[in-house]
C-alpha cells in the first residue's frame, strides 16, 4: 500500500507520533491525528494546522465511540497511543489504556477493513539474557508485584490481540518492537528515556542519576530511523502478520552513555554521577541488563536498517534540547 491514502495515527501529538505524521504528510497521505494530549503536545503538530491533508481529533482511545467516529475514512491505522513504564505509579493507566486502546483500535480496523500497525516495545523481551533478540525470543518477566512488568505484559497482550483478530477476522496487522527511540521532541523526563534525562542534567550542570551500577546496556535508535521503519511497514505487503524489531544494533552501557553525552556536549570535566542502588528505587525495582535487537528481519522485510550513528543522533538531540526549555510533567 503506498501513495495517497488516509492514515489514522493515535498518539499523534507524542514523540514518535508527531514525526510519523510529518512523514505521512510529506509524502501526500491524508492524516487523521488523534491524541488526548495527556503526554503529548499540540505544539508537536501545530505546523500542520492549515494543511488540508491534516485533521486533528482530541480524543481518548479508550472511548470507543469517539475513536470510531474519528476514523471513518481510514485505510490504515498506526496505533501509538499508550501509557509507558509506570515508573512512579499509574500502573492502572498503563494496563487500561494499552489493553482497551488496542482492542478498540483493532475492532475499528476490522470494521473498516483497515491494516493496523501496532507500536510494541523491546520491553516485551523482558529479562531474557540472550542478546541480540530475534523476534522469536522468549519473553522473560519478573514477579507481578514489580510494577515495571505491567507495561511489558500490556504490550504482549496487545500483540496477542493482533494475532487473535487475524485468526478470527483475517485482519492485517504489523507489530513493530521499537528499541529506545530518541531525538528532537523527546520528553525531557524519564518518560523520554535515559538519554533525555542525561542530556538535561548536563545542560543544567546537575548530577546524572544512574540506576544500579550502570553496567546495564541499551540500544538507542534515532527517530528518523524509527520513522523510516514505520513507513516501510505501512507499505510492505511482506510485513503483514509479522512481528518486527525496529532498532539500532549499537550497544552501550548506561555508564558509557553518560560519559559520551558529556563529551559530545563539549564538557571538559568528568561527569557528575550519582549511582542509585536498585533497592532505593522502590517497588521491588528490576532492570533489564542487556538489550540489543537482531534487525535482520527488518532488513529483509522492510529493507531498512538504522543509518544514524549514536554519536550523530546524540549530537542532534543535544542541539535540539539546548534550544528548548524543560516542560513540567507529572510523571
Ligand atoms: N519512545 C520509545 O523509545 C519507545 C520504545 C518502545 C515502544 N514505544 C511505543 O511507541 C509508542 C509511542 O511512544 P512515544 O515515545 O512517542 O510516547 P509518547 O508518550 O510521546 O506518545 C504517546 C502519545 O499517546 C497519547 N496518549 C496516551 N494515552 C492516550 C489515550 N488514552 N488516548 C489518546 N492518546 C493517548 C499521549 O498524549 C502521547 O502524545 C507507544 O505505544 C510506546 O509504548 C516507544
Short description:
With about 325 residues, the protein is α/β, with parallel strands linked by helices. The chain contains nine helices and 13 strands. The protein has a domain at about 5-180 and about 220-250 and about 290-305: Rossmann fold, CATH 3.40.50.720.
Q: How would you explain this protein's 3D organization?
A:
Helix content is 35%, strand content 17%. It has helices at residues 15-26, 64-70, 91-112, 148-169, 194-204, 223-235, 254-264, 296-301, 310-322; strands at residues 6-10, 30-35, 54-58, 76-79, 115-121, 173-178, 181-182, 208-211, 217-219, 221-222, 242-246, 251-253, 273-276. The strands form four sheets. The chain has a seven-stranded parallel beta sheet with strand order 3-2-1-4-5-6-11, sandwiched between helices. Helix 3 runs parallel beside helix 4, helix 5 crosses helix 7 (254-264) and helix 5 crosses helix 9 (310-322). The model has no long low-confidence stretch (mean pLDDT 95). Nicotinamide-adenine-dinucleotide binds at residues 11, 13-17, 35-40, 60-62, 80-84, 97, 101, 119, 121, 178, 180-181, 187, 193.
Largest sheet: 7 strands, parallel
> What small molecules are bound in this structure?
nicotinamide-adenine-dinucleotide
Kindly estimate the percentage of residues that lie in beta strands according to DSSP. Answer: 15-25%
Classified in CATH, the superfamily of the domain at 6-182 and 222-249 and 292-307 is: NAD(P)-binding Rossmann-like Domain
Order of helices and strands: EHEEHEHEHEEHEEEHEEHEHH
Amino acid at each position: 500500500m503506498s501513495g495517497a491514502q488516509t492514515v489514522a495515527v493515535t498518539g499523534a501529538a507524542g514523540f514518535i507520533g508527531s514525526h510519523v505524521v510529518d512523514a505521512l504528510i510529506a509524502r501526500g497521505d491524508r492524516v487523521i491525528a488523534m491524541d488526548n494530549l495527556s503526554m503529548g503536545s499540540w505544539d508537536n503538530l501545530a505546523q500542520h494546522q492549515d494543511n488540508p491533508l491534516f485533521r486533528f481529533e482530541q480524543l481518548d482511545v479508550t472511548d470507543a465511540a469517539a475513536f470510531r467516529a474519528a476514523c471513518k475514512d481510514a485505510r490504515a491505522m498506526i496505533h501509538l497511543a499508550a501509557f509507558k513504564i509506570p515508573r512512579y505509579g499509574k500502573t492502572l493507566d498503563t494496563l487500561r489504556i494499552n489493553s482497551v486502546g488496542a482492542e478498540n483500535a483493532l475492532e475499528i480496523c476490522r470494521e473498516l477493513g483497515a491494516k493496523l500497525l501496532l507500536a510494541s516495545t523491546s520491553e516485551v523481551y523482558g529479562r531474557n539474557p540472550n542478546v541480540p533478540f530475534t523476534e522469536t525470543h522468549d519473553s522473560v518477566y519478573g514477579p507481578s508485584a514489580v510494577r515495571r512488568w505491567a507495561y511489558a505484559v500490556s504490550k504482549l497482550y496487545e500483540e496477542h490481540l493482533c494475532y487473535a483478530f487475524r485468526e478470527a477476522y483475517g485482519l492485517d496487522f504489523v507489530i513493530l518492537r521499537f528499541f529506545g527511540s530518541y531525538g528532537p521532541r523527546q520528553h525531557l523526563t524519564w518518560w523520554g528515556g535515559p538519554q533525555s534525562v542525561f542530556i538535561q542534567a548536563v545542560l543544567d550542570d546537575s548530577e546524572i542519576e544512574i540506576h544500579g551500577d550502570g553496567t546495564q546496556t541499551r540500544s538507542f535508535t534515532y527517530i528518523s530511523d524509527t520513522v523510516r521503519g514505520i513507513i516501510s511497514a505501512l507499505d510492505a505487503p511482506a510485513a503483514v502478520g509479522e512481528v518486527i524489531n525496529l532498532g539500532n544494533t549499537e550497544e552501550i552501557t548506561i555508564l558509557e552513555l553518560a560519559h559520551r553525552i558529556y563529551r559530545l556536549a563539549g564538557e571538559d570535566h568528568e561527569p557528575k554521577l550519582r549511582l542509585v542502588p536498585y533497592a532505593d528505587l522502590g517497588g521491588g525495582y528490576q532492570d533489564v541488563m542487556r538489550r540489543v535487537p537482531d534487525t535482520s528481519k527488518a532488513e529483509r522485510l522492510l529493507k531498512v536498517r538504522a543509518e544514524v550513528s549514536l554519536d550523530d543522533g546524540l549530537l542532534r538531540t543535544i542541539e535540539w534540547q539546548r534550544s528548548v526549555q524543560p516542560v513540567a510533567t507529572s510523571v
